[in-house]
Amino acid sequence: MTEAGPTEAGAPTGRDARELLAQAERLLDTARAVLADHARTVDAVHTALTPLLDSLIRRELSAIPVSRLKDVTEGRLRLGAVEQAGFTTVGQVHEANRYELRQIPGVGSQTADQALAAAGQIAHAVRDTVAVRIDVDTPDESTTALVTALHRLVEAGPDVRRAVDAAGRLIGRLEPLLTAAGPARGRLRMLFTRRHARAQALEAVASVRAAVAEAAARGLPLLFGQVSVDLLREANSDVAAWVDFELRSAEYYSLLAEMSGTNPDRDAAEGFLPSGIAHRVRGLRLDDAHLRVSLRGYQSFGARFALAQKRVILGDEMGLGKTVQAIAALAHLSARGETHFLVVCPASVLINWAREVRSRSTLRALPVHGPERHGAFAEWRETGGVALTTFDALHTLPAPRDCGMRPGMLVVDEAHYVKNPETRRSRAVSGWTQRTERVLFLTGTPMENRVEEFRSLVRHLQPELAPSIHTTHGAAGSHAFRRAVAPAYLRRNQEDVLTELPALVQVDEWEEFSEEDLDAYREAVGAGQFMRMRRAAYARPATSAKLNRLRELVAEAADNGLKVVVFSYFREVLLTVQQALGTGVFGPLSGSLPAARRQEVIDRFGAVEGHAVLLSQIQAGGVGLNMQAASVVIICEPQIKPTMEHQAVARAHRMGQIRTVQVHRLLAADTVDERMLNILARKERLFDLYARRSDVAETTPDAVDVSDGALARRIVEEEQLRLATGTAEAAGAVSEN
After folding, report:
1. Residue pair 717/731 in contact by the 8 Å Cβ criterion
2. What is the pLDDT of residues 651-667, one digit of tens each?
3. Which of 316, 546, 618, 662 could form a disulfide with 537 if both were Cys (CB 3.0 to 4.6 A apart)?
4. DSSP letter string over 468-533?
5. Are 231 and 38 in contact (CB under 8 A)?
6. What residues have CB less than 8 Å from 604, skipping those under 6 apart?
7. Which residue ranges form the domains of the chain, and what is each CATH number?
8. By three-state DSSP, how is residue 376 classified?
9. More confident residue, 447 or 337
10. Which residues are within 8 A (CB) of 689 and not within 5 positions of it... i.e. 6 or more apart?
11. Which pTM was predicted?
């Protein structure tokens, strides 16, 4: 006779209950294991981080005169005897102990205690201001230990946070239920259990079954197991961890800021919003189930601001990740059941949006532009996802009132494109904003400098707010402006929030060729001319997709008062850029210009107040020149020699640079650019792993670059076959001109 079967309320007892509760115990064990593995990993980071922070604190305290201790005690501390004894800095007092200070003639126990307490307060304040910077060029034992400790968390990715949060909630839910369900493990125990306790046990069993089923539906057992494995996995070597740090330094610094407590000032990270709005935004929990990236603190706040306020402008300065904040808001809504989203953007960034949506979330990206846009739009209406369209295409699509559906959110990138309400693109966007509950405008242009333009944008979003916005708000300064327009506007500057980031942020700007671009490219491929293929993107300036994006980047840098350096291998390309940008551009620097003359041009560029643009051939600007006045670097095409690109970027990203350097690489999809990157990335990673830190690699960088001729022949051959403009055999006679 078996011991089984359901009893009252349909809850199992006996063997069935034991099996269910054993399953719940195993699930609980995996949840506890995740928390334990995460705690060990975090402890390892703190173990490596603490001595580095202590060293920075000691250095800061050693520069603070001991007289500052009086400020902390409001002048009550008498330090004459302490100073006479040779204690001249706060650091010396902080390192001393009570016994040492009491040995000083004239110093009693009260003075010693007050001095130590004051030094401790200053040390605590200093602790909140110092930040560890990791120098990849001079790794030592202590920074290597920190990088390898952080490597586990970075490798495990955003799943760690989800697993830890889910494990904590599951433990809090299951532990009391398992205790209450104890009597249900056997029928005999149930017989000798009081009626009330028996009812509680059966209710607990039913709740355990629901919790286990819910965990299984959410995939938690697999998530917990995978994260534990990831957290236990060590880097292949210290060098591998350093290489990964160079590739994903922003993620390392984000974690480092979280671990060290050196996140940016909260008011600055929250855009100096009034406390009521900031509190409401903080109270919204962001659902990241569909995200594939960890957000920095200010980015999470930006996504939650868009969700909490519903119809807003996110105006973060360029380089702060407005796109990923928008994607995070879409992913949150998707997790809550929304199925359709619409993004409107310039054609120059549409392909970037598609790549970002696919790489940073599980959402489906569906481009709706070009000749097939009507079919793609119909597919989006039927199946959902993130529809990506352009300002010029939007007015050709069915009007929102004819669609019979409303997007969960409308995102408008480069929203200043719709500042003029009379334009066709503005009217098309307005049609969608009026029928969509949640609307997010993105722009890197500082709106406090353009109050009329801002008022025009607000009319799309919160028309009732527009009449209360006056030019005096902008004249009062950025903080006053932001507070005045807080219900509809959030902006953070680099200097406010990038304390957690390294001084280098690299962005690949993928463009899709215009028809004219493609014609020029096909001609170059057909002629088998590799170098002509590389510069074909600029052959037809009037319709060049890359040149259009370059103008946009320069314009945004100008709006933010940032200096720009534009690099290209080709003087011909730089002359095209010069003509496109007009007057006031410095250079181009080239190899034919003597080095002293080149530095003179750079010095004049650096002396300009605010925005300026410098053009340089990459082989001329990459050696021996300092361009640290620039904080935006634009590279017109990928380079055959990776070392050339590294050296050029290093001209701006070097000692003396006080702002984060943004590097934008202009790339054309499905062209020589993509082929080069695929080939060079594999080789460069191998080089990084085995050679970069060797003396040979430092003294002979050209030894690690691929053969120009071999690379050219291979790529031309692939492109001729792909475009059917030539044959594989024709590539044997390729020209590299």
Report:
1. yes
2. 665 544 556 788 899 99
3. 546
4. G--HHHHHT-HHHHHHHTGGGEE---HHHHGGGS-SEEEEEEEE---HHHHHHHHHHHHTTBHHHH
5. yes
6. 586
7. 1-261 (no CATH), 263-498 (3.40.50.10810), 502-733 (3.40.50.300)
8. helix
9. 337
10. 239, 240, 243
11. 0.67
